[in-house]
Every structure is written in C-alpha cells, then in structure tokens.
Amino acid sequence: MSALSQEEAKIISDLSQSHVPPKKILANLRQNGLGLDAYSKQIYNEKAKLKRLSRGDRTVMKHLIGLLEEHNYYKWFRTDETTHAVTDLMWAHPQSVELLSKFPYVLLLDSTYKTNQYKLPLLEIVGVTPVGKIFTVAVAFLRHENEDHYTWVLQKLKRLFPPQTLPSAIVTDRELGLIKALENVFPTVPHLLCLWHINMNDWMDVRMDVYNCIKTHEEFFKDYFGGGNLVYRVLVSVAYWDNAPSPYEKWMTITDVGVVVATYYNALVLSASSLGNQTYLPLWAPEGVSQLSYEMTILFLESGSHFVYVKMNDNCPLPPFDRQWARYSNNSVAYLPEALRSRREMWDILNSV
Hints:
CATH topology of the largest domain: Cathepsin B, Chain A
Number of helices: 14
Helix content: 40-55%
Number of strands: 11
Distance between the termini: 87 Å
Strand content: 15-25%
CATH architecture of the largest domain: Alpha-Beta Complex
C-alpha cells in the first residue's frame, strides 16, 4: 500500500471540508486518474489526521464547543463537580431556533443509543411544520438517562421558545425519566406516546407488549381474569410473533387485552361495536405520571376478535368504564373518573335521548 501523494492528500482535504463521504472521495480520485493504489482505509486515516490537525492541542470536547461557538450555535453544557468532565452537552442551530419560533406546535423527543464512540445517548428534539415536514430543533449528549439529566435538557429547551409560547403537544417514547421531567418542566403541555411505540398497524409489537405486561404481573392478572387457565388462554392467543396476519386462533380479543393495552401504554382505550361499547382505563400509571399518555379508539368486529384503530374527535363522549376498573386500579390513576366525568356524562345524555 503506497503513501498518498500531496495532490491526493489535498483533494481529500478539500472534499472532506465539504462533508463528502470517504467512498465518494475515493471514487473522485480514481475518476481523475489519482488514487489508483489507494484504499478506503487510507481515506479514513487521512480524514482522521486532518481532524487531529484542526483540533490542535484541544480535547475533542473543547474542539466541539469551539466549533459551536465559531458558528454561533446556541449551546449549553455542564460538568462533573469532582472531575470537571463534561457530563451533558446540548446545542441548537440558529436556523432551527427560528423555525421553532414559527412552528412551536408539536415536538418529538427520542434517544438513539450506541451510535457514537462514547456510547452516550443522543437525544434528538424534532419539530413539525403544519404540512408535516420535520426539522431538528436541538440535540443533546447525556451522561445518564434519568430525570435529572432530562430535566436539565428540557429547561434549556424551554429557553428556545419565544416568550409566552409553549408547544401544544410533546411526543416521546415510554422513557420514565423523560416523562417525569416533562411533568416538572412542561406541566401544562399534553404528553403523547409516539405512534412508533404504539403503532396500531404493527400488531407484533403490541402483542409482545401485552404478553410481557401480563407475564410481569401474572399473579395480578390471574385474579383480574378469574384464574390461571384464563390467563394462559390470553397468553396463548397473543403469543404470535410473525410480522404477518395472524391465524384465526391467534386473534386477540379486545375484552381480554383492552385493559392490558390501556395499562401498558398509560392510555384511554375506547372500544366500540354493535355488541356494546366500553372504555378501558389504565389500572396503574408509570411512577410520577399524573395524566394519560395516549388515547385510542378501537372499533371491533367478528364477535370482538377482529378490530381496527380509528381516530375520534378530541374530548369525544365516553361509554361506561370497564366494570372491574374500580376494584383493581390503584391510587396512581384515582384521578381519572373526575377528569373524565364530563365526557362520561355527555355519553349518558346522548344515550338517554
């Protein structure tokens, strides 16, 4: 493997500054009759060398913070009191903040894992325009995924909004530390679970969640369903992991899984059919959560074994609650009957006409 010539090294440098990936750099060299003996590894090594040279004697973290300052990013970081090492770092591009001021309505928060050499979670905060286009608001590296670190990020995020402005909704996954932090920093903003995590078209994931919820609380659900045999029947019916339509004997029954779906996703589940209508509420809530995370309506057919997800208007009337809810629910969801009272009354009024 021969060394790169000065001309080849300069081309690599110029293209790297334009963020051209190594594969295309190598193709460009060969297209111009250069780098005929070069390999991708040499391109990567040269790019790493250029990064080290541009960084000088600064650490990677100091270099990153310097680049953020150089390009006028909004940035925040905090350090460990003992080691003085950076524990959390968050930044936002000025144009992203401008977009947020115009479209502050919905935010999506999600973390990626093990995608960087430091194995730190990267939290991405995304906004949505009225035409469904998404844009990155800010990103943050966090030392730990817990309430303290998420609270720090959300407090900085709040500063990016124009005065007297808050989002209309924040969408996340079921990360409990993040949910707790949202309760503290954005207490008046509705919190929803992401459709990626409650994708009603992806029944394989729903089946797995229902199965794991029942298995984790098996003794509780034995009492709820009225015996171990009934719990076993429900587990057998949901234990189908192929990402394809399930056979008839594996069809889930809404009267069995409705309360489990509601509890696992901290959701209100409205079940409607010609056979009867019912509202399923969570039997307990995630620790520190004092509001529903999601609301879904399920229209079921075929004697309750085949059902589809439909969208209803906000604050629609609610049919009677599951009869066993009052007996089996705990104090974490005791607020629900009063919070939903007007919607229940609306249902009764409509049915009395």
